[in-house]
Amino acid sequence: MQHLLNPLTSTPTYQQMTNEFDFTNHSHRRFNPLSNTYVLCSPHRAKRPWQGAREEIKKVALPNYDPKCYLCPGNVRATGDVNPKFEATFVFPNDYPAVKLDQPNYVEEESKDSLKGKLLKTQGVKGKCFVICFSPNHSLTLPVMSIPEITNVVEAWTSLYNSLQREALSGNAPYKYLQIFENKGFAMGCSNPHPHGQAWCLDVVPTEVDNELQNMQKYHQENLTHMLGDYVKLELQEKERIVVENDSFIVVVPYWALWPFETLLIAKEHLRSTQDFTEKHKQDLAEVLKVLTTKYDNLFNTSFPYSMGIHQAPLQCSEHEKDASWFHMHFYPPLLRSATVKKFCVGFEMLGEPQRDLTSEQAAARLQELSGDFHFSRN
Q1: Which of 45, 151, 194, 273 could form a disulfide with 286 if both were Cys (CB 3.0 to 4.6 A apart)?
Q2: Distance separating alpha carbons of residues 78 and 287, to the nearest angstrom
Q3: Once rounded to an integer, what is the mean pLDDT over residues 1-9?
Q4: Residue 379: which pLDDT band, with cuts at 50, 70 and 90?
């Protein structure tokens, strides 16, 4: 019988290893202050050959209008409602919402001291969901929209936030948080290519946002400064992970990034939500979004998939929570080495902690060298 080498004797001893640490070749953990978690970085693994699953490249020349698309202007949706012949960004209530308002309150029947009360906790959730059609043009995505067109999207985000907050503060609705997001591309489970995002308004603050708010509040209490404000200062000093910036916003591959080409878009000044935006901020956000998403498309010459979400102040919260909030956007793209190779969070990442092979600095360097103007061929 053939025996495998003993791994403890077939590798260099601890004493034989070099004393000089190399961030591009040695494993290490990076702390994420927003989530209070660590990410394991294994840059040496990026050199391994890939024989795993590959995504199918789908380059489809889409028409400006698709009569079968339930998001195109004038078309009938699955529920029978008819879209108006909109000419700019269009927002409407989701026909199949994840949460709804017209349901009874949940009443916990189990005693808090019982096993069920301790382990099988339930909380009723109410809210309203919206679809945000970015453009009437079925063939567009953010990188190929004009800055005025993207500004219309930002205006729609702002208007929705303001109107739902008015409802909440007047007592007409129990809303506490508005989560705006976009899933772009088939790899992210997006079934309709028409340019659109979503907004889910809940009567609770979602877990990810709540964790961030608590960690930002703790940082503010301990340091008397804002976590993301300090992080912007640090990134502007180091300049190593900046992908794009303008007067109002900075986009970086965060030091603690999990996804290979993950980015974090942060307001340079203390903007708690879109409610604090001036017209200049709206235009600057549109400009940054266009350049960033164009760089994404140019990275692997494909319509780059991602999940994007806005984190900002809750609709209803204390002044302390509101002041601890800082407008930022997360971009989580799944592609790893090419348009066909996708990162999976499995194994150790599900059972231990998140892990990545490419360092944030290496990913930023790749994005920095890309043009923010050229668009790949979609035919």
Answers
A1: 151
A2: 34
A3: 51
A4: very low
Is 320 annotated in the active site? Answer: no
Cβ distance 256 to 241 under 8 Å?
Answer: no
Close Cβ partners of 60 (under 8 Å, ≥ 6 residues apart): 193, 378
What local confidence, expressed as pLDDT, does residue 88 receive? Answer: 96
In the annotated binding site for UDP-alpha-D-glucose, the residues are 45-48, 78, 94-95, 183, 189-191, 198, 343-344, 348-349, 355
Residue pair 361/23 in contact (Cβ under 8 Å)? The answer is yes
pTM of structure: 0.90
- DSSP letters for 158-185: HHHHHHHHHHHHTTSS---EEEEEEEES
Number of H helices and number of E strands within the chain? Answer: 8, 12
Band of residue 112 on the pLDDT scale cut at 50, 70, 90: confident
Domain 53-104+122-368 maps to which CATH number in 3.30.1050.10, 3.40.50.720, 3.10.270.10, 3.30.428.10? 3.30.428.10
Residues annotated as binding site for Zn(2+)? 69, 72, 138, 194
3-state helix, strand, coil in the chain (%, to 5): 30, 15, 55
- The three-state secondary structure class of 130 is strand
